[in-house]
Amino acid sequence: MAALDAHFRTLVETYADIKAILITDRDGVILLKVEQPNLPAKVTKAALSATFSLSCDQATKLGMGKALMVMSAFDEYQINTNEGLLIEIGSQLKNEVLIIGNAVVAA
């Protein structure tokens, strides 16, 4: 996990627009969290990730296949707002997320 943490930390430090990366299980339980210093705790709290996970699950029920991305906007913050940046690093993140997923399934 230390190598994945370091990799995600590099992404957060490389892309100024990325404030945090959270990897959660399907219920929104945070498995890995990397964030910029001084980021308010409310942005990465567990209730938000659980709600985000539920939104993805509900969107999948629309009959258009698995939801790949859900975007949320609030008064102060936007979640997943830079789609181009996410798509650019998405394939790179996918491999790391699969490693975490396989570790969780094995446990």
UniProtKB/TrEMBL annotation:
InterPro entries: LAMTOR3 (IPR015019). GO terms for biological process: cellular response to amino acid stimulus; positive regulation of TOR signaling. One of its GO terms (cellular component) is Ragulator complex. It comes from the Eukaryota. Belongs to the LAMTOR3 family. This is Roadblock/LC7 domain-containing protein. The lineage of its organism: Eukaryota, Fungi, Fungi incertae sedis, Chytridiomycota, Chytridiomycota incertae sedis.
